[in-house]
Amino acid sequence: MRLKNLMTGLIILITINLSAQDLISYEKVIKTDSIGKALIFSTINDWFATTYNSANDVIQMVDKEAGIIIGKGSMKYYYGNNSSYNGNINYTIKVYVKDNRYKVILTDFKHSGLSFDLGLITSAEIYATKGMYKKYHNKAWSDIKLKTEQYSNDIFNSIENKTKKTNYINIGDDW
């Protein structure tokens, strides 16, 4: 009985700790000029195929009728001269499509480094409050947050440019 109460208390403590730190997430609603849902959807599918090496490895879910595409992406991460943090930051990309607009959400950023894994990136100001590597972890933590924001903006610009080009291309031309 004591063990059960201890485990319940531990689970509640972990849950409270995690809820106090929100996962980093970036989103943007992009409006298009007179482009229907079907054309936006196929353009974004094309964007996935050309942006990522293998769209089949990235795309996890496609629902054309609902207008949803969900994928798992990865960005390379370099932290200057300290290669211990170099590695990858994996993330989830979600695109919700409607007539004349769509929303892109990047979330669940997770760092995996050569020697140090900082894990899920949250809104916490600092990564560590104690430990012999706290100074280095905290600097890398800030750098990761900055670079994930920059990367997210690059993704937003890339996908927006792709759909803007759709405005100028008449898919039905007899070529």
Summarize the structure.
With 175 residues, this protein is an alpha+beta fold. The protein has four helices and six strands, in the order αβααβββββα.
Primary descriptors:
175 residues, alpha+beta, six-stranded antiparallel sheet, 4 helices, 6 strands, elongated
Helix content: 40-55%
Structural class: alpha+beta
Strand content: 25-35%
Task: Write the H/E string, N to C.
Answer: HEHHEEEEEH
Structural topology:
Elements lengths: L1 H18 L5 E7 L5 H15 L3 H4 E5 L4 E10 L9 E12 L2 E13 L5 E2 L13 H35 L7
Antiparallel strand pairs: 1-5, 2-3, 3-4, 4-5, 5-6
Helix pairs in contact: 2-4
Description:
This protein is of the alpha+beta class. Helix content is 41%, strand content 28%. It has helices at residues 2-19, 37-51, 55-58, 134-168, and strands at residues 25-31, 59-63, 68-77, 87-98, 101-113, 119-120. Strands 1, 2, 3, 4, 5 and 6 form a six-stranded antiparallel β-sheet that branches. The longest helix has 35 residues, at 134-168. 21% of the residues are buried. Mean pLDDT is 85; it is low at 6-19.
